[in-house]
Amino acid sequence: GNTEAEIGRVGAASPLTLLGVVASPGFFSTLNIALERGRVFTDADRAAAEPVVVISASAAMRLFPNEDAVGQMVNVTAPASSRQLRRIVGVVDDVRYVSPEAAATPT
Question: Based on the number of CB atoms within 10 Å of its own CB, is 49 exposed (0-12), middle (13-18) or buried (19 or more)?
Answer without folding.
Answer: exposed
